[in-house]
TrEMBL record:
Keywords, sorted A to Z: GTPase activation, Membrane, Metal-binding, Zinc, Zinc-finger
Domain Rho-GAP, residue spans: 163-354
Family matches, as Pfam families: C1_1, RhoGAP
Record-given protein name: Beta-chimaerin
Organism annotation: Oryzias latipes
Amino acid sequence: MFLGHFSTWFSPDLGNCSSRMPSRESYNVQKKEKPLVEKAKQEASQEDILATALGMRMGPQKTSATFWQPIKILACSQLSSLVRRATLKDSDWTPKSEKVHNFKVHNFRGPHWCEHCARFMWGLMAQGVKCTDCGLNFHKECSALAANDCKPNLRNIRKVYSCDLTTLVKAYNTARPMVVDMCIREIESRGLKSEGLYRISGFSDSVEEVKTGFDKDGEKTDISVKAYEDINIITSALKLYLRDLPVPVISYDSYPRFIEAAKLTDPEKKLEAFREALALLPLSHRETLKYLMAHLRRVTQNEKFNLMSAENLGIVFGPTLMRAPNQDAMAALNDVRYQRQVVEVLIKNEEVLF
């Protein structure tokens, strides 16, 4: 009887409890529907964001799916690209350049280990080699296996002029050498209409002073009009920097391809050959050349004031930007006219080639 009363008293609760608890089938349906609901909410949110970006109002009656879909595909890619670009740091935009180590035989004091094999470097003298740019130590035999990942230390950069272009760019973590950027900015701010720009040389003592300033103070060097009123001093300092590079802006490896491209007569084949030659340049060299050619094109746009055409600039910058690798004097002399043509083509087709 007690059991009967118990069952009578508890059975309604059990019934209510069973009615409140979901069945396994309904639970599985809800589990499948939940991601779909979240996805729908996310898409609706994206539509609202895109509508705002496009200047559209999305009220209770939203635009039809047929009208919205092509806009959504186009705008989503554009908006995501803009968001990604806005979140990038300046260092993310800096082009990455491979840099080979500059190994020199070194006498180590005290115990030292090879950075490649992690073994002790035995001997009393000339135990191994040391990179003069980043300071890493290697066995002589291990140095040939070292990756091109040298990260120069500013403490090891003793001067700016005559320093390898890629080494300087890596050390300062910039896209181009500071000398190129600073000089071109100064020239464009006050010298584009100066007659004989780049053709007329500045006073040699002042040019040497600018060079010493960059070697000593780097980016803090003052080349403003207050320091050097004659713009030809700045143009001469820039040309001197480019001439002093151990490896020219148009590197020795790519030099033959540029000369062969200049010899072609068919316009389309010539431009294609130039593109292939540009692809051979180290990244830091290509970025520097691109920036310089864009500047020289702006110089030619002021030709009626400065009297400097693309042909004239080619004569000035041909031997400055490229040098014949291991050629005899006669062969190098024959290449001079093609060097001029190379620079001329790069200036006139700057927007197409870069």
